[in-house]
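hey m, so remember when u said the tokens were messed up on ur end? i reran from scratch. heres the input so u can diff it against urs
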Amino acid sequence: MNRRSLLATAGTAAACLAGCFESTDPEKEGTAEQGALNASNETENSTTSTSNTEYAWHHETPGSHLTVAQGLVFGQEQPRDVNNPEAAGGIFALDAATGSHEWTYGSSGPLSGYRTPIVKDAVYVTKAGDAGNYSASAIEFDGTERWAGLDAYPKQIVDGVAYAHILGTEFLGLGAIDTTNGEVLWTSEYDDEHIGYVRFDTAVEQRPETVYVSERKLGAVSTHDGGVRWQYNHGDGGTDLHTVSDGVAYFTANFESVGAVIEGEALWSVDSLDRPQILSITADSVVVEERHGTDHAKICVFDATTGERRWSREKRTRGPGTSLVLDNRVYLAGDQLRAFDIQTGAPLADAGLDTAAPVRLLDVAEETEWNTGPLVLVQVGESTLRGVTLEGDTVWAWIADGAIETAIVDDFVIASTETGLYALELD
């Protein structure tokens, strides 16, 4: 079973979905000049061109941090305990074809929990403790431990090596771990005791020579021995590394800056922004979300080479599931779905999806039996899932009994709701 593209956080998203537009002014939203294109006036509980989908299987315990690999569904149990609503369970594995429970590893509570599992040749899990500590383990696909209890937080795994935030009394920082036995291969002199982001150059296809890291500063470190190649500091605050491509590292810093660095030297930076988050990097564009207050935000597109601002647009919602980028288009979700040309900010009116409830982007199936292009999984309101084509047609829908918390697409749509996990067929 091959896991397809995941659209989850404010990181790089890959999907293609066309939207409805209320305004032709790239700096504003909310006018009614253009109206909702191809509007169907659907409510949250309506479907188009399909009846409600029957599920293939149901697992009673809801889950988070869902991942599908090796014919299994992995995630963290989210049991519904009325006496302890913050309680969470362990890491589970279900048979992806039948939903049968294979195993559960560990447990957690309101002050501790697991990070999203990394699935490679094993399931690598990290548990965060209530004292700011971490414990990493490698679990075989049959649920047995390969190794466990390492004071580390693996961030990336490449070619049998886990690049991790190592914790301990004698060392605190970046290190490399042999995934076969859990032994630490090296620790780096990279001068930052907290490791937030670990990235590799997306343009490098063979085994990488350099791992890029950030927390208070950016750093480039040798994958062979942890030697520091260069470091870069942009101000006194923290630095978030988003993407490295062809040796150029794109970052945000100090809750106000976005920029690009190569070989430890700044290419460009834009300051005086409002809590910027990089959403996506393309060959020539950097797409950024500025976050205003608790709800509103602004989308800004910068030239990737010079940092010149091309255009910006206010948006009513912020955070995961509200923005994505593909094929020179920027898609915004919220009260409706809208698409804009990445170069000019002009609205693109080639399709539409009009709803009476908020919209959240969840995942994408790259193709289906009856659709040659991507089919995007959209949550409408609290309890409805839709599969939407590039033409804006809803060709698949499912209405849950309770609120939908998350969903991913593989051979099935795996949806987690208040009443458990459901596997839904895309037909």
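this time it looks ok to me. The chain has a mean pLDDT of 80. if urs says something different then somethings off w ur setup not the seq
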